[in-house]
């Protein structure tokens, strides 16, 4: 089978997946920004793995999807999780708790939001994880001359968690606020509501794997979902090497199941 992987880099989990597939008799081509051209030359592969949510790879995923080339994970889902508003409503659609959000120019936010509602977080509208996040402590921190439409969330005081899932397996750890996936976490036994949130999320969107960033709010003890991911590196999974074959086989099974449905 010919497999294409759309990815930012060839190292890490991507490299391990390539090795697994090659060792099991498949041909693998990796596409990064250095060699990816979104055109009919991509039709030579049987299916694609969408490892990155960068826009170039999402566009490639859409192009392939619309030309009936299977892409795993689904590029529509991947785009949804990259767009803050789309991601917010996908979380709400599951009945999970989310932070209060605001959207507008800094000038309009400064006029409409009460000082008691600060601090806020401003996040890139297209993005996930902690990159580009800034804390706005009061209206005085907002640049009223900036006319760009920005996305804000209410800052939540609490304990931060990174929660992975691969099929029915889960791995959860406490992390520092705004730390990315690769920062060290303190592994812990998942609490029941964390398990429940992961199960709901996985089943609602028919996901093979992924992660949720969550916060246990100090004032209410509520579990609040603040970020989502379709294809993490699983850097903090206990014994991360052991999951490569599981991930690769889940992807193959999803591809084969869909192919059989279309025959």
Describe this structure as you would to a colleague.
There is one protein chain. By secondary structure, the protein is an alpha+beta fold. The protein has three domains: 2-72, 3-Layer(aba) Sandwich (Rossmann fold), CATH 3.40.50; 82-97 and 157-238, D-amino Acid Aminotransferase, Chain A, domain 1, CATH 3.30.470.20; 101-154, no CATH class. 30% of the residues lie in helices and 25% in strands. The protein is built from seven helices and 13 strands. It has a five-stranded antiparallel beta sheet with strand order 11-10-9-12-13. Helix 1 links the parallel strand 1 (2-6) and strand 2 (27-31). Helix 1 (13-23) crosses helix 7 and helix 3 crosses helix 4. The model has no long low-confidence stretch (mean pLDDT 94).
List its traits.
3 domains; 7 helices; 263 residues; D-amino Acid Aminotransferase, Chain A, domain 1; 4-stranded parallel sheet; 5-stranded antiparallel sheet; alpha+beta; globular; Rossmann fold
